[in-house]
Amino acid sequence: MHLTLRQWQVVVAVAEAGTTAAAGQRLGLSQSATSAALNELEGQLAAPLFDRIGRRLVLNAHGRALLDPARALLVAAADLEVLAGVGRPHDADRLPLRLRIGASTTIGNYLLPQRIAALLAANPQAEVDLRIGNSAEVVAAVQRLDVDLGLIEGPCHESGLQVLPWQRDALVIVAGSRADLPPQVDVPTLAAARWLLREPGSGTREAVEQALLPHLHHFGKAMQLGSTEAIKQAAAAGLGLACLSRHAVADLVALGTLRILDTPLPPLSRQLWVVRHPGKRVPPRLGELLALPPDAFAHG
Length: 300
What we know:
This protein has helices at 5-17, 20-27, 31-43, 61-84, 105-111, 113-122, 135-143, 187-192, 203-216, 228-236, 246-255, 284-289; strands spanning 50-53, 56-59, 98-104, 127-133, 149-152, 162-176, 194-197, 221-224, 242-245, 258-260, 268-276. By secondary structure, it is an alpha/beta fold. The chain folds into three domains: 5-84, Winged helix-like DNA-binding domain superfamily/Winged helix DNA-binding domain (Arc Repressor Mutant, subunit A), CATH 1.10.10.10; 98-166 and 272-289, D-Maltodextrin-Binding Protein, domain 2, CATH 3.40.190; 170-270, 3-Layer(aba) Sandwich (D-Maltodextrin-Binding Protein, domain 2).
């Protein structure tokens, strides 16, 4: 083998950092050692991986084609070290379970905690790293191979990833319990209301638009907030209407500060999705945690 894992580490670090100096800091190498490793690797290839633009290094088409396979190689090597018990005592009975999950906000805050609690109760030594962000951020983490799997609330628009339906999530329209609204709210009233929405890139925002706009055609007024929790509190304070997961609003509905509106709209729901990078091995226990079919990624 002519190329080393360290050289591919340098390629990935330079691609992400933009300079050999910044990449070297990430890897604990000097700038000269980082440059030498990159030059040695590129010297063995048919074409360079980077274009030199001023002091920055920018991936060219050749480099972009190799970036994901390089990331997959490094993750596979790290997984192999974990499976082999590198750095652990020789008398360790078994290796602890480690799971890394990316989840968009509603899934991470309201759907996964009980599942993770059950897993940890049965496996006290297990480690779960749950990273929560909007759907676009979760997909980016999957692309970088930072997580084993991603769970998102809207469609995945990035190519090269495996996407499977996970489960459906019921959506409800809510308002503050003191809102001056009739027992059933008609469509013109809904269309004219102020709507409390997540930011673009959020799966909740995309799902709400797909669920409501075919019926309302537009939002008369809108206020953008950065989290589901902020939307819930704003709706409870009377700032507008919100369309959210039934799971997300269950606590404030039970407290009586939010009420679910009766409307002429059909039942609303959205599909939740599992996203995986083809180069990432999915731990079997993670598939069990999410109740995925055993052969869910058999062809990945």
